[in-house]
């Protein structure tokens, strides 16, 4: 005997059928990124070649900057804001990262890193959950300055605020595109108008002349990773993710296809 | 019929997965092979810079070091050998010879106080030492790239693709036995501003 079917099931099956091949494809993309990381040896900063490069070193801030939620000084930050859905899961409605460059220093030299467009892999951070109607000032001010996709409707639900940051002296691994320094130094000029150009900022700017090269997201090679985890852990995480997606994508699509085929064969949709 | 559709799609995913996996291995190996060429070319960029600095160095020093013909000759000989070198092994040998000649040159220059006070010489020395350090870094980088490639083409499943495409292991940049030894400097008695490098 055939019972009534949940009306959401056909929709979920259709979405899964479409998403399966996408997940499968993205799994291969992750596998390629994993291989790219493994195939690129770590270069010393003073002699790093132009083009795709992998470097690691200590973070040195280039301008006086504070993280938006915690207010702590840092060299780079990324935040996300999520709201709780009906089923208790979180859905991210806003993501942001600092665009201010920072220095990366190793034993041999220093590079200027422009983090815009980077995939950040920074495990440690702060997380706070609060009711949208009674938000602490730091979050309320941030949301006033950066409206989310939901607009003021966010105040009706529970909200989660996450912040990850890189502080001075922390070691990071960067895989990005190295370009010569000269063309980039001019970009520091607009910083004078931001009000951050105090004595500390001036001192930090003086390091610009010692920069060996600039690392940023390339126009042809778009892989750009800033990671606080080691290369080995990063590769391991990406490999498992890729494997999961390569196996999971087809499984998802086949389950959805199986549902549709059985539904059609049983005539449930008539 | 529905079962056929299901199994066709399932087999399709398997075929696409296997083909995609081997394509990814192939692309990775090709990228690595090109990385080796790029790493080698990146050493060349620095060698060219060093090559251009040497005549300036010789010109600055020849007035002070008139009695050190042997050191100048060694430098010139090593520079010529580097220009003639074609294979990785020849290049490695010639480069090591030039690095050794430069080391001896700077060691001998230490005995000429007037030369050591010359700003142009100090700048050139600093520039060439800097380039030498960068060349050493890039040699290491080249060896890392070659090692990654050699390891990959010997590991399963990459070895299957590598055998099929007849990929050969890359050649590592080796250091001469002479470079492993310490430089010994002996000064000849009665020669106030000169030296002999052994």
Automatic annotation (TrEMBL), chain A:
Signal peptide (UniProt feature, chain positions): none
Positions of transmembrane segments: 12-28, 242-261
Membrane topology reported for the UniProt record: Multi-pass membrane protein
EC number per UniProt: 2.3.2.27
Protein name (record): RING-type E3 ubiquitin transferase
Main location per the UniProt record: membrane
Residue ranges constituting the E3 Ubiquitin ligase MUL1-like domain according to the UniProt record: 84-192
Catalytic activity: S-ubiquitinyl-[E2 ubiquitin-conjugating enzyme]-L-cysteine + [acceptor protein]-L-lysine = [E2 ubiquitin-conjugating enzyme]-L-cysteine + N(6)-ubiquitinyl-[acceptor protein]-L-lysine
Subcellular localization, as worded in the UniProt entry: Membrane
UniProt KW keywords: Membrane, Metal-binding, Transferase, Transmembrane, Transmembrane helix, Ubl conjugation pathway, Zinc, Zinc-finger
GO molecular function, one term: ubiquitin protein ligase activity
Native species: Eiseniibacteriota bacterium
GO terms of biological process kind: protein ubiquitination
GO cellular component, one term: membrane
UniProtKB/TrEMBL annotation, chain B:
Domain of life: Bacteria
GO cellular component terms, A-Z: membrane
Bilayer topology annotation: Single-pass membrane protein
Keyword Nucleotidyltransferase set for record: no
Alphabetical list of SUPFAM superfamilies matching this protein: LemA-like (SSF140478)
InterPro entries: LemA-like_dom_sf, MamQ_LemA
Transmembrane residue ranges: 6-29
Subcellular compartments: Membrane
Keywords of this entry: Membrane, Transmembrane, Transmembrane helix
Gene3D superfamilies documented for this protein: LemA-like domain
Family to which this protein belongs: Belongs to the LemA family.
PANTHER family reported in the protein's UniProt record: PROTEIN LEMA
Identification of the protein by name: LemA family protein
Species of provenance: Eiseniibacteriota bacterium
